[in-house]
Amino acid sequence: MAHHDHIATHDAHEHGEGMGKKQIWSVFFVLLALTALEFLIALGFVHHWGILQKGTLVNTIYIALTLVKAYYIVAFFMHLKFEKSSFIVTCSIVFLFIIYFIVLMLIEGNYLLTHLQEHALYPNN
């Protein structure tokens, strides 16, 4: 029984599944640096020094940094990077459909907001 456990552990290490301490710490420091950059932009560049103004550029930077952080979390801590490529494609397609659905709902909500406001709520009164 102990021999079988040793073989299973050896096979898992051969295929490169999981992460070592060095890789965990490197991902941690990347996430820490991205978070520090977000705080530097928010508190330093926007509020304290006034180099950047709140608006589309700052929001785009925040979204890009958040997507990079989400990639690192999903890829390394949720072990998606170590999965087979077909599973990664399946998860990515589902994620894209969810984003597509959210965008469609926002567009539809904006349309209803602008067009329903033009008409009286109770026209017979």
Chart the SSEs and their pairings.
Blueprint: H1 2-14, H2 21-48, H3 56-77, H4 85-116
What distance lies between the first and last C-alpha atoms, to the nearest angstrom? Answer: 83 Å
SSE string, helices as H and strands as E: HHHH
- Strand residues, percent: under 5%
What is the mean predicted local confidence, pLDDT? 83
Shape annotation: flat
Total strand segments:
0
In the predicted model, the low-confidence regions spanning at least 5 consecutive residues are 8-14
Largest sheet: none
Number of helices: 4
What integer value in Å does the Rg equal? 24 Å
Number of individual domains? 2
Question: Which percent bin holds the helix content?
Answer: over 70%
Q: What structural class do the secondary elements suggest?
A: mainly alpha
Transmembrane segments: 24-49, 61-80, 87-107
Subcellular location: Cell membrane
Membrane topology: Multi-pass membrane protein
Protein name: Caa(3)-type oxidase subunit IV
Which tags fit this structure?
single chain; 2 domains; flat
Can you walk through the features of this model?
Helix 2 (21-48) runs antiparallel to helix 3 (56-77). The protein has four helices and no strands. With 125 residues, it is an all-alpha fold. The chain has two domains: 18-82; 84-125. It starts with a helix and ends in a 9-residue tail after the last helix. The model is unreliable at 8-14 (pLDDT under 50). The chain crosses the membrane at residues 24-49, 61-80, 87-107. This is Caa(3)-type oxidase subunit IV. Pfam families: COX4_pro.
